[in-house]
Specification:
By secondary structure, the protein is mainly beta. The chain is built from three helices and nine strands. GO terms for molecular function: FMN binding; oxidoreductase activity, acting on the CH-NH group of donors, NAD or NADP as acceptor.
């Protein structure tokens, strides 16, 4: 436990999934790995997605007001996660190394290693310190294949993955709950 009374290991007990959040800004396509995604309501269907305010994907979503969520499967290789999670779209074209498809509203996503894709239209945006919380109404959703969705716990424990610098959970990698 840290000196401020916060045992950061407790936060690892909150369940997360692992997703690729994608959007576009004009002709620029971008996506990133995210774990801070959740369904907020069912009627209408609304998702919440939280991304670091400095990330290119955040800028793309602010510009287009649209985003996709791809639900990653457990078999997703670390090279795919690394492409979307540890590289900047300012330096590389992330969709050049994988299949890229588009929703009817021209929002990009990769079907590679994705169990499902969900498209949402932004209905609200909240600044939360270092991050931006997007609330999006679901406009399209499709199951692409059957499989087990990757949890953030699986990513850390089985795949031995780390949290990138701009992840909401960065800094929590310091201890495991036993």
């Amino acid at each position: 436990m840290s000196g401020d009374g916060i045992d950061k290991r407790a936060l690892f007990l909150i369940s997360y999934g692992l997703y690729v959040v994608s959007s576009r800004m004009g002709d620029k396509l971008n996506g990133q790995v995210a774990n801070a995604v959740m369904q907020v309501t069912s009627d209408p269907m609304v998702l919440a997605c939280c991304l670091h305010k400095e990330n290119l994907t955040t800028q793309c979503i602010k510009d287009s007001r649209l985003f996709t969520i791809s639900v990653l499967e457990e078999d997703t290789p670390m090279t795919f996660i690394g492409n979307f999670g540890f590289k900047s779209g300012r330096d590389i074209e992330k969709f050049s190394s994988c299949a890229c498809e588009f929703t009817s509203r021209e929002v990009p996503y990769s079907p590679d290693y994705s169990l499902a894709v969900i498209e949402a239209e932004v209905i609200d945006v909240k600044e939360v310190f270092t991050h931006v919380l997007f609330l999006g109404e679901v406009k399209y959703a499709k199951v692409l294949k059957e499989g087990k969705p990757m949890t953030y716990s699986y990513y850390h424990e089985i795949k031995k993955g780390k949290s990138p610098k701009h992840a909401p959970t960065f800094g929590l990698d310091t201890g495991k709950v036993r």
